[in-house]
């Protein structure tokens, strides 16, 4: 059973990864064009609008997707109730955004935000209309149609957003692009799945029983992850928020495009192991090994190449973003621990632990940023450094929950986390030394340094895995998983050719 499940998760990860790579490639091209057409203040206004909108969405989010995926049997009544409840809550969400738009804009000292929030108030309502039948694909770990839909949406929205940016040259291009993305996603969801939901409220009480902590956890988690940008909008000019948000997007690319796609199939796969605690622990540590094998060298690489990345990818008018980009990449070190813990505690109905961690972090972020503001600090990099310093506290809190609730040995988790740091440190030192000796154009310098970095990390990491396989078997599993994926791809290719 475990072997078959791992194959399904691997294939689901591949489809998620393919979707992310294709859509992200389009997204990166779009962003590269947009950062040269629009100004940081445009991204700042759009970011502030997204933060406010998403906060209200979180308050109205009851985890309908996780509730359906977790359920042992998926009936039409279950799907209809989940779909209807989501619509009802998102209608209220949109109404609150519209009513509070002026007051939020006044609080942030950005009057342009009022009209933007009024338009954004319809986005969650439109998104709630999406065909709930798509969750059946996730229950079956069938991500192929979902991949096709996401790619179609991205290909359609891409020219619309770029065209609007070239025409309007303002933040409205980003806002309208987001709106169109939701509309096309909803239409496409009914095209790729035959299920047609109907209004029903029969199972709302059962879902709320499951979701009451989900609502609180989702809201506090969102506040923890977005409070920094929101406070920057109040303490600093809107262009600082734009610099911060765009830097964040590029700094977290390795996680959002390589690791996050695995979490959907990882979560769905857990439902089949919920009664086997030992298997759950093994699956968790294997996921962490795969995640940190990618996250640690990526964070080190982005940090050491921050100037080159900004110069080549973002352009000279974004030069102030370089130190922010480098620092924000270090936040990725907490993400695998956090997202895996969320999945497990959701299944165990113990999300209250995550809520308390989030509350501690919200207080810490708010206090540190307020203190900097009271001292007259206006440098964005200083606020970013304060935010990154708190990641140590966050990781410590997560590890305490792993030990206290999941009974996972901290030595096992720390070994998985720390093993890639040695070759990553060597890679960092070599690349940093070589940087000063290169005198080519920025693009060529970046390519040479990236290749040298990979050439240093990969063989060292392979040697460490081979040497430590008896003590840290999770990394040996990663190699076996990659071999399994390769064999599956080759088998499918041979089958298609015959």
TrEMBL record:
InterPro entries: Poly_Biosynth_Transport. Pfam families: Polysacc_synt_3. Keywords: Cell membrane, Membrane, Transmembrane, Transmembrane helix. It is found in: Cell membrane. It is a multi-pass membrane protein. The chain crosses the membrane at residues 21-38, 44-62, 83-104, 116-137, 149-168, 174-192, 287-306, 318-341, 353-373, 379-401, 413-434, 446-466. Signal peptide: none annotated. Belongs to the polysaccharide synthase family. This is Oligosaccharide flippase family protein.
């Amino acid at each position: 059973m475990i072997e078959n499940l791992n194959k399904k998760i691997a294939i689901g990860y591949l489809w998620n990864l393919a979707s992310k790579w294709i859509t992200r490639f389009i997204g990166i091209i779009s962003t590269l064009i947009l950062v040269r057409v629009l100004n940081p203040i445009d991204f700042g206004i759009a970011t502030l609008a997204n933060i406010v909108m998403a906060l209200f969405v979180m308050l109205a989010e009851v985890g309908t997707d996780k509730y359906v995926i977790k359920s042992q049997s998926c009936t039409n009544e279950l799907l209809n109730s989940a779909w209807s409840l989501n619509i009802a809550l998102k209608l209220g969400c949109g109404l609150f955004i519209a009513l509070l738009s002026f007051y939020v804009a006044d609080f942030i000292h950005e009057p342009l935000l009022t009209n933007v929030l009024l338009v954004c108030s319809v986005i969650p309502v439109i998104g709630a209309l999406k065909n709930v039948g798509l969750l059946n694909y996730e229950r079956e770990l069938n991500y192929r149609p979902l991949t096709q839909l996401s790619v179609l949406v991205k290909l359609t929205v891409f020219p619309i957003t770029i065209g609007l940016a070239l025409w309007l040259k303002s933040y409205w291009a980003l806002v309208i692009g987001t709106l169109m993305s939701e509309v096309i996603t909803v239409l496409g969801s009914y095209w790729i799945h035959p299920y047609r939901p109907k209004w029903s409220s029969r199972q709302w009480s059962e879902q709320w029983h499951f979701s009451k902590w989900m609502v609180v956890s989702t809201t506090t988690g969102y506040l923890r992850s977005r409070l920094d940008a929101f406070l920057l909008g109040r303490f600093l000019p809107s262009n600082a928020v734009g610099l911060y948000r765009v830097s964040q997007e590029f700094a977290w690319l390795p996680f959002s495009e390589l690791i996050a796609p695995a979490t959907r199939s990882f979560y769905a796969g857990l439902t089949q192991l919920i009664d086997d605690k030992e298997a759950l622990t093994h699956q968790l540590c294997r996921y962490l090994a795969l995640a940190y094998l990618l996250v640690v060298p990526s964070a080190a690489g982005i940090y050491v190449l921050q100037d080159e990345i900004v110069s080549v990818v973002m352009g000279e008018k974004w030069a102030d973003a370089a130190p922010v980009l480098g620092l924000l990449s270090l936040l990725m070190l907490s993400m695998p621990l956090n997202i895996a813990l969320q999945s497990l505690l959701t299944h165990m109905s113990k999300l209250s632990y995550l809520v308390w961690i989030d509350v501690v972090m919200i207080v810490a972020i708010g206090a540190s940023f307020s203190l900097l503001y009271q001292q007259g600090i206006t440098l964005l990099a200083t606020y970013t450094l304060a935010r990154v310093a708190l990641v140590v506290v966050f990781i410590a809190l997560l590890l305490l929950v792993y030990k206290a609730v999941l009974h996972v040995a901290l030595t096992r988790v720390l070994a998985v986390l720390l093993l890639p740091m040695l070759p990553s440190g060597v890679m960092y030192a070599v690349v940093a030394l070589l940087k000063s000796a290169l005198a080519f154009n920025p693009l060529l310098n970046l390519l040479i340094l990236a290749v040298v970095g990979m050439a240093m990390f990969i063989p060292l990491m392979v040697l460490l895995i081979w040497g430590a396989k008896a003590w840290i078997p999770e990394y040996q599993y990663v190699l076996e998983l990659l071999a399994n994926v390769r064999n599956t791809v080759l088998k499918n290719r041979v089958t298609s050719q015959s």
